[in-house]
Amino acid sequence: MRPLLKPLILFLCLAQPVAAQELRGHGGPVRAIAVAPDGTTAMTGSFDQSAILWSLSGGTAEAVLRFHEGAVNAVAAVPGLGFATGAEDGRIALWRGAAAAPAEVVEGHRGPVAALAVSADGRRIASASWDGTARVTTREGGAAVAFEGHQGPVNGVAFLPGGGLVTAGYDATLRIWPADAGAPRIVTLPAPLNGVVVAADGEIAVAAADGRLRLFGPDGEARGEVTVGETPLIALALSADGTTLAAGGLRGQVALIDRAARRIRATLVGPGLPVWSLAFLPDGKQILSGGADRLVRRWNAVTGEHIGTVVPRAGADVLAAFNGERGAQVFRACAACHTLTPSDGNRAGPTLHGIFGRRIATAPGYAYSEAFRTMDIVWTKETVAKLFEIGPNAYTPGTKMPEQTISSAEDRQALVDWLEKVTK
């Protein structure tokens, strides 16, 4: 090779554009991610009510899609079409390429859509909703099949290899529905469930609010358990080859789990903020994460290392100054969505600064649902306590809040007493 040719080739290689390692564009927490089967594009959904179609080779946004009225909670790749999105408005939109309007719209849910799954052939779409049901819609038409029985929000849904369905609910039950939509096998677990995936061999993995990942056979028999953390798991993904599970939680912990060995083989060390969504690239070598910092990050799915020059730093624990105070400990479950000071602003939910004495749906700069704007509630210690006594869905129908109750009257009192002190 000529002496000048080597430097020239090196220069040309270095000059090639490098894909952005962080996808920036959402104005709110990234609630959902899905990657196309060919790995060239991805779609994300956010609390900012938009979906974004990304080029993964260039790391750029190809289209910002605004159709839903409310947070986009779920995204799934649809073979032969593009992507599907499900949102707070109860609708499912099917998108072809970068078209500005959906190719199809599916309606039927009476509450927010929390999760989506698509059959391997792309013909059937399953949706889980906070209305307490799951539904399976066939794209060629015909009536949707409703799966009823959960006592509260359904947070996860997945297809079984034989055509059945699996649902995971806030009522702490895993339900395995046969292909003929008959009575399900019900498995009751110790904590609410926030997500479910199914491997090609039929093994089921569920993410729970007690920080544990549990595995079951297609018959519902327990097969194993992995402790990821002490706070709720809110994101779950499975690699295309079925070998690796990824589970993320409210405190930012993300574990890469060897499914066969039932052990954590790597940990993604991020900024310490909630991780709402995870998705593997088809080859299983990279994984995308989306969270409360509004970014989509890329990671090496083998080593767990962050890809790119920016190394995420763990955020400060804003509740560390209140160690030992029961109200602050109860509030930890709320800190993912709400801030306490005016300088921190709104997150998935409005800031709680100045909440007491404030009329519902009046925090500056927050996009409330229409249902909230018509309610006649003033936030006091009594009304906040009532919210958590009977649950957001019952007290404020149409809310964006995850369903959560505080059964202990002492804990509810500790929470509102502490909030009164720190939100003035």
From TrEMBL:
Keyword field contains Cytoplasm:
no
Q: Which UniProt keywords apply?
A: Electron transport, Heme, Iron, Metal-binding, Repeat, Signal, Transport, WD repeat
WD repeat start-end pairs:
23-64, 106-136, 147-177, 268-309
Pfam families reported for this sequence: Cytochrom_C, WD40
Q: Where is the signal peptide?
A: 1-20
Q: Which SMART domains match?
A: WD40
Kindly indicate whether the keyword Repressor belongs to this entry.
Answer: no
Q: Where is the Cytochrome c domain?
A: 322-423
- This protein's superkingdom? Bacteria
User: By what name is this protein known?
Assistant: C-type cytochrome
